[in-house]
Structures are given as C-alpha cells and as structure tokens.
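Protein modeling request. Please complete all fields; requests missing the sequence field cannot be processed.
Requester role: graduate student
Desired output: 3D structure, token encoding
Chains: 1
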Amino acid sequence: MKIATVLRNDDYTREVEQALKDKLRATKSPCEFVSGPDEHPDMVLSIGGDGTLLEAVHQYGIEPAYVGIHTGHLGFYADWRPDELDEFVERLVQQAEPAIVEYPIVECRITMRDGQVFDKWALNELVLRNASLSTLVACVYINGDELETFRGDGLIVSSPSGSTAYNKAVDGAIVHPSIEAIQLSEIASINNQAYRTINSSLVLPKHHEVELIVMNPEIMIGLDREQAIWKDVRSIACRVGQEKVKFARYKRLTFWSRVRNSFIKG
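Delivered output (266 residues):
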C-alpha cells in the first residue's frame, strides 16, 4: 500500500510523522511512503488539524482514502492522537480492509459574465461575500425558481460534514454525512421593512440545485481553505457532488461522537 502524508507546518507535527514512519517500518510491512499526487497513493495521512485535512483532500483529490491524526486541538476529521500511534500502526498493519465511510462534497459551477465556466468543489463549504465591507446582493434560485434576493454579509453552501464548521457558527443545522444534501445559510442578512430574506438555513436534497445570481461586480469566494477575489461573476450554482471523499476508519468513532467530542465534551 502506498501512503502519502500531508503535515501542518510545525516541528511537533514533523516529529509525529517521523515517529509514525519509524514505527511502521519496524513492522516490516509492505507499506511504502510516497510523495505527491503523481505517485497515486492508496492512503493519505493528514497530520495536523482539520485545515491540514482539507489541504490534503484538495492536493490529492478523491481517489485515495484519508486518515487524520491531530497534533493540536481535537480535529473533527481526525480519528487518532499522537499518543495512539502504536495502536494505529498495529491496526493499519493487521486490518487489511478498514471500514470506508464516504462524505458528500459541494459541487460548484461558477459562470462569468463573458460566458466562461469554472467547475470547483469543496469538502466543507463554499463561502460567498462581497469583496469589500459593503453588502453582498445575490438573487437566490432553487431549481430555477426564485426564492429571495439576499442582502447581507454573505452566504454559505455547506456539505454535511461542513455543516459543523462555518455553517454551525451562523446557527445552521448539523447534518449527518450519510444524508446526501447541501445546506444554504445566511451570514448577517438584512431584514427590515424594505428587504426580507427567509432568514433560516435550507437543507436541499441531492436532486436540487441552488443558484446564486451575483449583483456585485467584485466578490470573494472561499472554497474550504482557499479564497480569492473574483470579478464579473454572473452566477454560482451548487449541488451535491457526484463524487465523495473516502475516509478509512480503523476504529469506531461515530459522527455523533465527533460532534460531542468537538463541541460538548472538550
């Protein structure tokens, strides 16, 4: 099995990676460490936090399975702590076929005013804001039908796993990853006598598409950890992606256990 690693940039994380490699090599297993997507790893180990895992997923794509080892605060995507490396290596070597869970992604199509189209995707969320501190204005359509004209700080389109990230911070619902859906949530919407929005998060099933018709000449689009200023965007269409990101589970830790550990237990 070919294994690649993606690390948070700090000395402790690099020490954890080296310890993991030493322990795995000591078992004389056929596992081989590789670097770079061109070597087509079977598994990618993300060592760091949730941001590191998102970086790994965008670097290596949907082909490999992912395992998270957190080296800071408890990561939502991570199964393992550095003090559990011996147990992880033992299970990695002995358990030839781990349980594979698949997380839906958000598939996005960005259409420019000149007709150019850019296809993007996110494991957590797409975030849309105005490029300046002024109000974002976007017409929201669901399956071609107009819902509202949004005015406010921004909009989030999140996946089920991303529902526990920025989406949760704006009081969106937490959605189990087995539910193939996306969620549209508002960031500080303007609601007064002149302007009205639904002012609630919307959970949309797999066969639905939300399209955001952009009125601002310049906007900021965030896709997981990446963000950029875009000019002359006409629309952004989002739906549940055709592909899913795979995670290899070598121990049982349910989604709701992760929610509890991340937000309640500490």
